[in-house]
Design goal:
Layout lengths: L1 H13 L6 E7 L7 E8 L2 E9 L4 E7 L4 E8 L8 E7 L2 E8 L5 E5 L2 H19 L6 H18 L4 H10 L5 H9 L3 H4 L3 H11 L31 H5 L6 E7 L4 H17 L4 E7 L4 H10 L6 E3 L7 H5 L7 E6 L4 E5 L4 H10 L2
Parallel strand pairs: 1-7, 9-10, 10-11
Antiparallel strand pairs: 1-4, 2-3, 2-5, 5-6, 7-8, 9-12, 12-13
Helix pairs in contact: 2-3, 3-4, 5-7, 9-12
């Protein structure tokens, strides 16, 4: 396509200037009378790097990028809080054009520069998968295909900025070893930003099926650890696993504020009702913020199994030990060996697994 050739022609003209110079241009009648801003995110806030008034429906932002970086081009009225149009892009040397994408809603993409072109290729692939989703489609398979495409993009882009951004936004969807492999591609100077993600993935490997369970003794952290039951008693996971009545214990991480957790409740309740007497137990670990909300959910939903919580939201040791980054999360322990034998048993899968084990 012609578009792919333009940056080369432009680059030869700028050749005698600074090799790191960039020009970002945009033209659309939708921009009339507005301002264009180049913004970067720092500490969760957008900061303006450069801005220019739109003239004749067009703008041009120029500067130098010694290193490529992630940014947004925002077009809005002067002093307006909310952007009317914004485009995610990589600021990199050469010519970058903000081009309109055909569709129901006006949207724009950045064309030009290796990172932007790679990002557009990934977005096109994802859009094609998303387009197949909907009524009557095998959405679970398409979702798996979507995340497989994202992971392939991370690996194909070899740890560059695009690779890093995709990993940062989607790491929770990948297997721990995949996360570790992806981080290994990132250049040394950028590795520090992924240290927590890496240690969490390494910890997650330790609680994959086939590993021994880790005792949950003090869900609290700080000077006064308290893993307490709703009536204020200490209850360890070890005591539940070693209770002779129990053959299998499901460690269930949940919270009353978590919608998806609440949708799992009927499956938990039914499996418990059918298999508790045969040796199935649940050990509930809640990430609730208040004791009232936690206890209310237990009572209202009739969750009649053992529960503990530090009532400190995500701040508890068990969450780190089991590398839980999203809930609901669960781990099934075989009491006879102390090994984790399954994880992430959702919906009907839970009862099917327990039925197979306790037939």
């Amino acid at each position: 396509s012609m578009a792919a050739l333009q940056p080369l022609a432009a680059a030869t003209m700028v050749g005698c200037g600074n090799k790191a110079a960039y020009t970002i241009t945009g033209e659309s009648d939708k921009f009339a009378g507005k301002y264009a801003y180049l913004q970067v995110e720092k500490e969760g806030e957008l900061q303006t790097v450069d801005s220019v008034a739109v003239a004749d429906n067009a703008f041009s932002l120029k500067g130098v990028a010694e290193q490529p970086y992630s940014a947004y081009v925002v077009v809005k009225d002067a002093g307006a809080e909310r952007p009317e149009f914004y485009t995610e892009l990589f600021v990199e040397p050469g010519q970058i054009a903000i081009e309109e994408v055909a569709g129901e809603r006006p949207s724009f993409k950045a064309v030009g520069g290796a990172l932007n072109d790679a990002m557009n290729a990934v977005n096109d692939k994802l859009a094609a998968i998303e387009a197949k989703m909907g009524e009557g489609a095998d959405n679970a398979a398409l979702e798996a295909e979507y995340y497989a495409a994202l992971y392939a993009a991370i690996m194909d882009n070899g740890g560059n900025l695009l690779s890093q951004n995709i990993l940062r936004n989607n790491y929770y969807a990948f297997e721990p070893q995949q996360v570790i492999d992806a981080i290994a591609l990132i250049p040394a100077e950028a590795q520090e930003g992924f240290a927590n993600m890496k240690s969490s993935a390494e910890q997650a490997l330790k609680v994959m099926p086939g590993n021994p369970y880790i005792d949950i003794t003090e869900v609290g952290t700080g000077d006064q650890p308290q893993t307490l039951t709703p009536d204020g008693k200490v209850l360890t996971l070890k005591s539940v696993v070693e209770n002779k009545k129990n053959k299998y214990v499901l460690i269930d991480f949940w919270a009353s504020w978590c919608g998806p957790c609440m949708r799992e409740v009927p499956y938990l309740v039914e499996t418990y009702k059918n298999y508790h007497k045969k040796g199935f137990e649940i050990f509930g670990v809640s990430f609730d913020r208040t004791k009232e909300a936690w206890v209310k959910a237990i009572e209202e939903k009739k969750l009649t199994w053992p529960h503990v919580s530090s009532v400190k939201y995500w701040d508890n040791q068990a969450r780190h030990d089991y590398a839980v980054n999203s809930i609901p999360a669960n781990f099934l322990v075989d009491c006879s060996t102390g090994e984790i034998i399954a994880t992430a048993l959702r919906g009907e899968e839970l009862q099917a697994k327990i039925a197979e084990l306790l037939k």
